Amino acid sequence: MDTIPSFAEELSAWLGARFAAAFPDSPEAARAGRVVPSAKAGFGDFQCADAMQLARPLRLPPRKIAEAALAGAALPDCVERAEVAGAGYVNLTLKAEALAARACAVAEDGAHGGVPQLGAGRTVVVDYSSPNVAKSMHIGHIRSTVIGGSVVEILRALGYEVIGDNHIGDWGTQFGIIIKGYREFADRDALARDPVPELERIYKESYARAKADEAWMDACRAETVKLQQGDPENRALWQDFIRMSRHTFDEIYERLGISFETTRGESYYQPQLAAMVERLEKAGLAHESRGAVVVDLRDLDPAFAEQSRKAVEAALAKNDAESAAREDGKWICIVRKEDGGFNYNTTDLATMETREKDYRPARIVIITDDRQIPHFQQLFAITQKLGLVSPGTDLVHVAFGTITDENGHPFSTRSGGMPKLKELLDEAASRALAIVREKNPDLPDADARALAETIGIGAVKYSDLAMDPITTIRFSWDAVLSLQGNSGPYLQYAHARIRSLLAKYAEAFPGEDWRAAPILLGDPLERALARRILAFPETVVAAGAKCRPNLVADYLFCLAQDYSSFYQKLSVLKAEDPAVRVGRARLCAAVASVLRRGLALLGIRAPERM
Ligand code: ARG
Hints:
alpha/beta, 4-stranded antiparallel β-sheet, 4-stranded parallel β-sheet, 25 helices, 13 strands, binds arginine
């Protein structure tokens, strides 16, 4: 369906024309008339405060200005009343039918939920999850996976063609270390049983030996070189490690309901890297420096030059020449190492080039922890300068805060390390199961387990998505698994409660069809609920523009709270007037449908019962 018009826009256009007509000579009045949802009940549904700003240029009291704008005006069809209030506000009250009709249009629009299809005909690449081969996914990876999964859903809801790309770390010197360790001391049984922890153990042990023993280190390097030169045996081993790791990752993705359009690991881009460095050199962006090839970002981007200058000056002011040198070095980006090898920077440049060629994306979104902010600043600056993507391509790094232990300290291996993702999900599901069993003792075991998995996963995802990505998370089992307050289960429960209310309604009033019943909106709590429903499309637009699923989470929490205020005060099944009753049923159904749709944008399922 077409975009559902927004009241705020429509009313702003109307009131803007009124101000302009009332004060034709004033440039300030020509820009006035911005209408926003009213801050408080009792001030109409929408409000404009511009008369206060006009008082000075027009040399008139604000109330007089507001009155002049409204004088003799025919109201738009959707408006019941326009009044001047307080110091000079214009308060607009909508006709209940108009408000109800648009709320229904949003909630009952099966295709898009009223969300404007701003992305139609455009492609976005979302690079997320991206774990490293031969390492377990720990709860740090959950952030990229969960935030990315939600960003994908939100962009898709806006009509974008979304390519989710899992940029796994499947290349690098660590493979020589693993191959050497594998040859010397792999436990084949452990590998067959649960490969990733064993690969991790092999890596750690071989790495420790390499650090202590020069000969071991050389042997590891030799294995890496053999792998890079295409030695069949090493390549077969390397492919095996990837296969085993991906199998383990896939189990987690399946549980989380995540799937990717493509999984191109770092190795995919290796054949392009030499040419990429040449391209940089030809464009005059890269040069040799002490055996390496580097891009000097200070030459490239005035912003980097400025940052670099500030950092150096600050260090010198503290009489710290060494740190000045170091700060300055930060703005140098190595694209070929002294030993001739390429690195993360080179690979990411080639990744940009390939994405442009294959998808011509309007936007590329990459989701990693905030330690990589400088990397992506550099990458985006070079990408644009070299013209690796078309001008105007929106390059976005969504950085998320790291996860620390309960005391705010980084997880250390000594303290048992960061909990593994699988353990977290298992624990979440088992805590949820206890609650499901308590609330629904008659539910068959398989159903109870399925429900508990849905609730547990929802809780884990929501606890992450409810926060602005950049926030640092102090990990605590209790907070993640909380089933109350602003939590996933709370929203799932709000939805399930409405669904069961509607089922009861159908039983109690079998002849009544609420699907087409007028929603009367006689009570302010009902109006508030309808207005909240209307805000769903603009919430999705904002969340998509900023890649911030937490805007959707906040919205859903407010919607659930509005619903709960409504439901505490007004009865549905027991409403006296049948017309009010059936209209309320339709309003409830509308809330349930927006809750379900919004949870889906967070990658959270909304069960029918809980
Ligand atoms: N594998 C990397 C890590 O675990 C993240 C990769 C993110 N994507 C990218 N194009 N660099 O830190």
